[in-house]
Design a protein that fits this description.
The chain is of the alpha/beta class. Helix content is 45%, strand content 20%. It has six helices and five strands; from the N terminus they run βββαβαβαααα. A five-stranded mixed β-sheet has the order 3-2-1-4-5. A hairpin with a 4-residue loop joins strand 1 and strand 2. Helix 1 packs parallel to helix 2 and helix 3 crosses helix 5.
């Protein structure tokens, strides 16, 4: 059974989330998650440099085999989209410079992979990942950008382990039961 490390990234210019999963067969486990804090840097260009440095440092520390990154969602503020796209591009560049394959996922697809619904809140995503990956409460990062990045890595794990299977769930509860997070009800 070969092991693989997947790095997930949730791009941002104030906080950039990252999460790393160790995958062995059909099992995934948390290695690390956190955020890159960029508030203290006034210059957008300096923030981009710090993103590159930190992502490169994480890659050099954990040696991920693949990167999953969240695609920017389309918003009304063009300047915010431009800045977010630059941050994403810098993270992608760091992976490219280390020959790491990158897969981009839409936010809705990431939410579906971890919760069963594309309209889940960040808190629901974090809660489901905690249950699915059996992460102790004290290891959960309070920054939801970290769990969003972990969700990107988990989405990639799901996609690579079952690339042709399309799951249909009738509700969030149905998803949780089928994932083994909630107990199955007796059909009497």
């Amino acid at each position: 059974m070969t092991e693989k490390i997947i790095m997930g990234v949730d791009p941002g210019t104030n906080l950039m989330g990252y999460g790393l999963l160790r995958v062995a067969g059909n099992k995934a486990a948390l290695i690390a998650m956190g955020v890159i804090k960029l508030h203290q840097y006034e210059s957008h260009y300096l923030r981009l440099g710090k993103i590159y440095e930190r992502i490169t440092s994480l890659i050099d520390s954990y040696h991920p085999d693949e990167m999953a990154i969240e695609a920017p969602f389309y918003g009304k503020n063009v300047q915010s989209m431009l800045k977010l796209g630059r941050a994403q591009g810098v993270a992608i560049t760091a992976a490219i410079m280390r020959d790491i394959p990158i897969t981009e996922y839409e936010p809705k697809k990431i939410k579906i992979a971890s919760t069963g619904t594309g309209s889940a809140s960040k808190e629901q995503v974090a809660g489901m990942l905690q249950r699915i990956l059996r992460i102790p409460k004290e290891e959960m990062d309070v920054q939801l950008d970290a769990t969003d990045a972990l969700a990107a890595a988990y989405c990639h794990f799901i996609q690579m382990s079952r690339p042709t299977v399309e799951h249909k769930f009738t509700s969030w509860k149905d998803y949780a039961i089928k994932k083994g997070v909630l107990p199955k009800k007796d059909k009497k």
